[in-house]
Design a protein that fits this description.
The complex is a heterotrimer of chains A (412), B (294) and C (288). With 412 residues, chain A is of the alpha/beta class. Chain A has 2 domains: 30-149 and 300-362, D-Maltodextrin-Binding Protein, domain 2 (3-Layer(aba) Sandwich); 151-299 and 368-410, 3-Layer(aba) Sandwich (D-Maltodextrin-Binding Protein, domain 2). Chain A has helices at 2-25, 39-55, 74-83, 98-103, 111-116, 125-135, 156-162, 170-179, 204-213, 224-238, 251-259, 273-280, 313-325, 327-336, 343-346, 349-352, 355-363, 376-392, 398-410, and strands at 28-34, 60-66, 90-93, 143-149, 151-154, 193-196, 263-268, 285-287, 297-306, 339-340, 367-368. In chain A, strands 1, 2, 3, 4, 9, 10 and 11 form a 7-stranded mixed β-sheet that branches. In chain A, helix 18 (376-392) packs antiparallel against helix 19. The radius of gyration of chain A is 24 Å and the shape is elongated. The mean pLDDT of chain A is 90. Chain B has 294 residues and is mainly alpha-helical. Helix content of chain B is 72%, strand content 0%. In chain B, helix 8 (154-181) runs antiparallel to helix 11 (212-228) and helix 11 (212-228) packs antiparallel against helix 14 (261-293). The two termini of chain B are 19 Å apart. The relative contact order of chain B is 0.14. Chain C is mainly α and 288 residues long. Chain C has one domain (70-287): Orthogonal Bundle (MetI-like fold). Chain C has 14 helices and 2 strands. Chain C has helices spanning 3-11, 14-46, 50-53, 68-75, 80-110, 116-126, 135-145, 151-176, 180-187, 192-221, 224-229, 237-242, 252-274, 276-287; strands at 245-246, 249-250. The radius of gyration of chain C is 24 Å and the shape is flat. Chain C starts with a helix and ends with a helix. Classes of the chains: A alpha/beta (412), B mainly alpha (294), C mainly alpha (288). Chain A binds chain B through residues 71, 73, 76, 79, 83, 99-100, 103-104, 189, 199-201, 243-249, 253, 256-257, 260, 262, 374-375, 377-378, 381-382, 385-387, 389-390, 392-393, 395, and chain B through 42-46, 128-131, 146-147, 149, 151-154, 157, 237-243, 246, 254, 257-260.
Chain lengths: 412, 294, 288
């Protein structure tokens, strides 16, 4: 009897040991795809993966593979690979692609993982809500990683020269665009433009602020308020307060124009602040896009996902958690200057003492995203830039342009 | 008349080429053709079903489709036309003997050697309305007084991308025709010289007829190629501003990238049909000429 | 040197010859400026400090040239790797395509057989379909065959798209070559294969070189397949370059330096290949 018991006990113990060993040490490889916005980010991502591999203690090895951002076609490259039966375990992601991936049933539902996760509450609940909304379900399919809030960069020295103070209202902002458009060297040609307008892809984000400032919103783009906002946008260009190249100006151009002193204000997020300070030192600052009737600014986002095809979802979640609230979060946000999603990381002095981070946080309550529909990607990449270019060129009235934009986004 | 014996050789000779092509692209292409008869939009996978000719009917009513088709015609005619003329000139110039010919021949290929990723961006940078070197050059020469936002206005964007594709394609013709020039027997020129033919006569009476097939083939291939090319336009303007540089292939690419594959396939097939309209008379002439030469 | 030029030499003294050639030289110079200026501009951009790129005045030579991007390219990026990958893929693609295409082109040019026109037309239409619509099924095929993320995947897909064009090009050249030489050889007792190898091939070499250059460049510059069918271990140049364009703009220095570094070896390769461009004629002339 006693022998039997000892024997059984030993059997149970040894089985437990086997299970524990296999759970802890069975080596697992997670392939992670990401894009890098510049070489420093690329190096940082590799370092984060290396650190994770060294410290996770569960035998997880992350292989981080870089893919080109390719003007947003990163998402399609990922999609095609997954649809073709391949692709990684985890990947960096943009919220706008959620409908595409969700409709094809490619994403892992994270609800169960989140329920068990000890760090769940380190992330603002509203962020989870945004993720749920994007998938059109009650579940979270995308893991928050970091965000960026758009605000207005300005040059204090040019403000002084034009006799302008930081605008507190939308009307003051429009007035500032006008006053800041100057001929500084007296040759009869404008050499500083008030507003660095982004008319190419991606321009819908700053543009949205104009629509809301007049009291419009994205649910119906054809309201008189929304059209008035569009009219303001067009007038800035038509009156010459934005560079003539604006219809094709993308990120590169608006930043170059601002850095070369060609524009006095431009709208972007904290990601470009490091370069701005490099160029101007103290002669650059920022303010949140001011409110008029309404107030809105765009929240940029980057998330991570687990693909359904992954064979090691537990390990994959470990890695995403490391990126969201662990050391990976801190390391990435310090390098990129992006707004952390982890409340702990937000409290770090390096973020608290940054003037651009302050403005980002100030704008956060008004920050939102575009409606995420299955039409959104196409609307952003072709319909918005081409329609707005026609409106800026005077080939289309503000009302007609808004009608077209409404049709492209909502289908009617 | 006796029945000709079956000769297996030509079939054996083309077999490797045929098998490679069949093995790789047969199914994908068939798949794409089938997609054109479906509402095949991967953004709405639950709604994928056969819709017959609905996509084709939609294209017929799509004003952007017609505009893109017209743009494609201009893009091909002007683009390939100038590529050919300048390429032929360059081939003739490089066929002469002069000091450093080898170096000049290889560096004149640079536009073709330049990675496609770089071409669009470099030219975009050259055409840039604020920092572009083209504006600076034109201003220094006193030809313009204000900088022109070449790619930002509809009137100049399309000519700008066409100039770029011309630049990129000249070396192709130059190289291909230069190779063809080597096969012309000199006795023909010697005979013409004896007859007192001038340079123009020699060119039109000897050079062009001797290169007939090469000219045929290279222009035909180039037409297909340029009609389908995407990367130059996409990297320069993405089809904008206001769709002013959106050729059919760029339209297809945009639709394909937003994964509306059904409609994209439909337009791709329509583009192929339009190209067939160009190719058929070409092929007829070519086959006829081949029959005569035998 | 061609006989045609030889005959000029006989007829004109040196200076007169130069004057005769002068308009041609001027024209050539003008075309070269047009063709090469963007290359020059790429180079200048690669050695300009970022700050000078977006300066208020355009500078034609940087005030402080820097070769930092070049050293970074090799130290931090190991740019040699994508270059070697591209070289491998492009070379194998070229050899395979040329071999397969020569056989087919010879058949199309020298035989008349049933289905000939059909097959020729089919080859032509092969390239009319945009690759962006074929990516998902192609990816699935490559994965199933087990060559995904190896150079073979690229070589296979590139040859598929270069063979049809090469067949057509070579067919065009073959049709332009006079049949008489070959027939003479065959009358002399050579079989078809001997006549092809001894007579046609030497004369065709310039055309093979030109077609090879086309194939090589296509494989060297392709991006859409490359990004799907490779991963970090076998990335080719276009993908490596594209990685320099992120959401936060273009890394001009790295991108242009990378461009220059890829252009130069190809030009050098072509410098040696182009000597062959004139050999075909001499070979033919000896026999003729």
């Amino acid at each position: 009897m006693k022998r039997k018991l000892v024997f059984a006990l030993m059997a149970v113990l040894s089985m437990m040991a086997v299970i524990a060993v296999s759970a802890q040490q069975k080596p697992v490889t997670i392939v992670h795809w990401y894009w890098a916005d510049n070489p420093a980010y690329s190096a940082q991502m590799q370092k984060i993966a290396t650190d994770f591999n060294a410290t996770n203690g569960k035998g997880i090895t992350v292989v981080a593979q870089e893919y080109p951002w390719d003007g947003g076609a990163y998402s399609e490259t990922l999609f095609r690979a997954v649809m073709g039966g391949g692709g990684p375990d985890t990947s960096s992601f943009k919220l706008t692609s959620t409908p595409l991936f969700a409709a094809n049933n490619l994403l892992v539902n994270l609800d169960d993982f989140l329920a068990k996760w000890k760090d769940k509450d380190k992330i603002e609940p509203s962020l989870y809500d945004t993720m749920r909304k994007a998938s059109g379900t009650k579940s979270v399919y995308v893991m928050p990683w970091n965000t960026q809030v758009l605000y207005v960069y300005y040059r204090p020295s040019l403000f002084k020269k034009a006799g302008v103070t930081v605008p507190k209202t939308y009307a003051e902002f429009l007035e500032a665009c006008k006053k800041l458009t100057m001929d500084t060297n007296g040759d009869g040609k404008i050499d500083v433009y008030g507003f660095g307008m982004r008319g190419a892809k991606g321009g819908q984000e700053p543009w949205g602020s104009f629509i809301w400032a007049r009291g419009g919103n994205f649910d119906d783009l054809t309201t008189p308020q929304a059209i008035a906002g569009m009219q303001d946008f067009i007038d800035l260009y038509k009156n010459g307060y934005a560079p003539p190249t604006a219809p094709m100006d993308g990120f590169n151009e608006i930043i170059a124009n601002f850095k070369s002193g060609k524009t006095a204000m431009t709208i972007h997020h904290i990601g470009s602040s490091i370069g701005m300070v490099d160029t101007f030192g103290d002669d650059v600052d920022a303010f949140a896009f001011p409110g008029g009737v309404g107030r809105w600014t765009s929240m940029g986002d980057t998330e991570n996902i687990i693909l359904k095809s992954s064979k090691n979802k537990e390990a994959a979640f470990e890695w995403l958690a490391y990126l969201a609230t662990g050391k990976g979060q801190e390391a990435w946000c310090v390098t990129t200057g992006n707004v952390p999603v982890s409340k702990d990381v937000q409290q770090l002095p390096i973020f608290q003492n940054n003037r651009f981070m302050k403005v980002s946080i100030e704008g956060a309550p008004y920050a939102g995203i575009f409606p995420i529909l299955d039409t959104t990607t196409e609307w952003i990449s072709t319909i918005w830039p081409n329609t707005v270019a026609a409106a800026l060129a005077g080939k289309m009235s503000a009302a007609d342009a808004m009608k077209q934009l409404q049709k492209g986004l909502w289908g009617k | 008349m006796h029945k000709k014996k079956f000769n297996p050789w030509p079939y054996l000779l083309i077999a490797p080429a045929l098998i490679t092509i069949f093995a790789v692209v047969f199914f994908p292409v068939l798949n794409a053709v089938l997609m054109s008869f479906q509402s095949y939009d991967l953004r709405r996978p639950s709604q994928i079903r056969f819709t017959g000719l609905a996509n084709y009917a939609a294209a017929m009513h799509d004003s952007l489709f017609w505009q893109a088709l017209l743009k494609t015609a201009i893009w091909v005619v002007v683009g390939v036309g100038f590529q050919f003329v300048f390429g032929f000139m360059l081939a003739l110039l490089l066929n002469r003997k002069f000091w450093g010919r080898g170096v000049v021949r290889s560096i004149s290929l640079i536009p073709w050697v330049t990675p496609g990723v770089l071409i669009g961006l470099m030219w975009r940078w050259i055409f840039d309305g604020n920092y572009g070197v083209l504006n600076d050059l034109l201003m220094r020469l006193g030809l313009i007084h204000d900088k022109i936002p070449f790619l930002a206005q509809q009137s100049t964007a399309f000519p700008s991308v066409i100039l770029t594709i011309i630049w990129q394609g000249i070396p192709f013709f130059a190289l291909m025709l230069l190779a063809g020039l080597q096969g012309i027997p000199e006795e023909l020129y010697d005979a013409a010289n004896v007859d007192g033919a001038n340079a123009f006569q020699r060119f039109f009476l000897i050079t062009v007829p001797s290169l007939k097939n090469t000219i045929f083939v290279t222009t035909l291939l180039r037409i297909i190629w340029v009609a389908n090319s995407v990367d130059v336009i996409f990297n320069m303007t993405e089809g904008g501003p206001a769709y002013s540089t959106q050729t059919l292939s760029v339209y297809v690419f945009n639709k394909g990238n937003t994964l509306n594959l059904g409609y994209a396939s439909t337009m791709a097939i329509l583009l192929a049909l339009a190209l067939a309209l160009v190719a058929v008379p070409y092929l007829k002439m070519l086959f006829k000429a081949q029959e005569e030469s035998k | 040197m061609t006989n045609r030029q030889r005959s000029h030499k006989r007829r004109f003294p040196r200076t007169a010859r130069f004057l005769r050639a002068l308009p041609g030289h001027i024209l050539l110079a003008a075309m070269l400026i047009f063709l090469l200026f963007p290359f020059y501009w790429t180079f200048v951009t690669s050695i300009k400090p970022q700050r000078e790129l977006y300066g208020s005045t355009v500078t034609y030579w940087p005030s402080k040239p820097t070769f930092e991007s070049y050293s970074k390219l090799f130290s931090e990026y190991n740019f040699i790797k994508p270059m070697l990958n591209s070289l491998l893929v492009a070379s194998v693609t070229t050899v395979v395509s040329l071999t397969v295409s020569l056989l087919a082109a010879y058949a199309f040019s020298r035989y008349r057989f049933k289905g000939r026109k059909f097959f020729m037309t089919m080859f032509l239409t092969n390239n009319m379909f945009p690759t962006v619509l074929l990516l998902i099924p192609l990816f699935a095929i490559m994965r199933r065959v087990g060559i995904l993320y190896t150079p073979s995947a690229l070589i296979l897909s590139y040859t598929t798209f270069t063979i049809p064009f090469s067949v057509w090009l070579l067919n065009g050249y073959l049709d332009d070559l006079p049949m008489s030489l070959e027939e003479a050889a065959m009358v002399d007792g050579a079989n078809r294969a001997q006549a092809f190898l001894k007579i046609i091939l030497p004369m065709l070499i310039p055309c093979v070189v030109a077609t090879g250059a086309y194939v090589f460049m296509t494989a060297w510059n392709e991006y859409t397949f490359a990004v799907m069918f490779t991963n970090e271990s076998n990335r080719t140049i276009p993908v490596a370059l594209k990685n320099f364009i992120g959401q936060l703009g273009v890394e001009w220095g790295m991108l242009t330096a990378g461009g220059i570094i890829t252009i130069i070896p190809v030009c050098i390769m072509f410098f040696f290949a182009q000597k062959r461009l004139v050999e075909g004629l001499t070979a033919g002339a000896v026999k003729g």
